[in-house]
Amino acid sequence: AIAIGQHNNIQLASMARLILLSLAQLFSLIIYAFVILPTVAFTAPSPEQLPNASAKPFGINAAFQIEPTRRDELLDVLKSATLEPAMQFVVGQDVEDPNKFYLHEEYESRTDNPNLKTTYLDEVITLLETGAFATFPVSNEFDLCHNGHLKKVTNVKGAVCLNVELCIKPEVREEFLDVIRNNKAGSDDEPLCMQYSWGEDIYDPNKFHFHEQYVGEEGLAAHFEGDHFKVWEEFAGSDPFLRPPRVEKFTVL
Predict the structure, then answer these.
(1) Distance, CA of 240 to CA of 166 (rounded, Å)
(2) What angle separates helix 121-129 from helix 71-79, to the nearest 10 degrees?
(3) How many other C-beta atoms lie within 10 A of the C-beta of residue 142?
(4) Residue 67 CB-density burial (10 A; 0-12 exposed, 13-18 middle, 19+ buried)
(5) φ and ψ at 85, to 5 degrees?
(6) Contact present, 202 and 164 (Cβ < 8 Å)
(7) What sign does the dihedral 16-21-24-25 (CA atoms) show?
(8) d(CA 5, CA 3)
(9) What region does 177 belong to: left with phi over 0, alpha with psi -120 to 50, or beta?
(10) Cα(2)–Cα(8) distance, rounded to whole angstroms?
(11) Is the pLDDT of residue 32 over 90?
(12) What's the chain's average pLDDT?
């Protein structure tokens, strides 16, 4: 009987320890779920904590496909945006689709970039939450591979623009860079080319983004006739892409 009693006491003690351990684990899970995890998940990184953080000039290309009935709301948001640190803030409309809009932004460095908190971001999020967009907005961030603007850029209404995304195979990266540097140098000398900016995605190596501006369709046509562009065409015909290039054409509003 004593042995049985002792055995029962041992079992009860073991069960008590298991219960206390389970309660301790449960308490730890509660602390993690409601205290630690939200801090990790919802604390936005500073620009210095982003990948490839540097003092290089910095750009953003964005695209918005809006529902037709909400078009004017988006236009009001974009055209009223004021980004004090921005050296350039371009708003444009697709040449074929009146409900598709594009942005191009440039900053002296990523530390000047208010991409985590801008004057229009909250309003864009509100539009997103209320089903205003036909597709999810796209935003690409990149370090420029050349010097940025020396002063703030005044937009030229009606300028013909291209936002381009190129994903290059790693093995042709150096050749691509040589060809693009040559293309930029030639484009900068064109009398009807107002801008040729390009850089590498901060999250995805070998993905490159471009923003080009021309004086009307004649400026774009002249660009296509340049010797430097013919060198680009030859390279582009050699199967250098991981996926097809994305080219978005629009005019400045």
Answers:
(1) 10
(2) 170
(3) 26
(4) middle
(5) -75, -15
(6) no
(7) negative
(8) 5
(9) alpha
(10) 10
(11) no
(12) 83
CB 101 within 8 A of CB 54: no
Which neighbouring-strand residues pair with 104? 61, 90
Tell me the pLDDT band of 119, cut-offs 50, 70 and 90.
Answer: low
- Integer Cα distance of 232 and 117 in angstroms: 37
Higher pLDDT, 61 or 15: 61
User: What distances in angstroms separate CA 34 from CA 20, 31, 39, 42, one per listed residue?
Assistant: 21, 6, 9, 12
DSSP characters over 220-240: HHHHHHSHHHHHHHHHHTT--
What does the pLDDT average to over 130-145?
96
Q: How confident is the model at residue 63 (pLDDT cuts 50, 70, 90)?
A: very high
Q: What is the pLDDT of residue 184?
A: 98
E-assigned strand segments in the chain: 58-65, 88-94, 100-107, 138-144, 160-168, 193-201, 207-214, 241-252
Please give the structure tokens belonging to residue 181: 């540097």
pLDDT, mean of residues 100-115:
83
Strands 160-168 and 58-65: unpaired
Q: Which two tokens stand for residue 46?
A: 């500073």
**CA nearest to 93, candidates 106, 102, 104:** 102
Pick 185 or 30 by higher pLDDT. 185
pTM for the whole thing? 0.78
Tokens read off for 229: 């562009």
CA distances, 198 to each of 3, 69, 168, 212, 217 (Å): 83, 34, 14, 9, 21
Least confident among 11-15, 183-187, 214-218 = 11-15
The pLDDT tens digits for 65-81 are 999 999 999 999 998 88
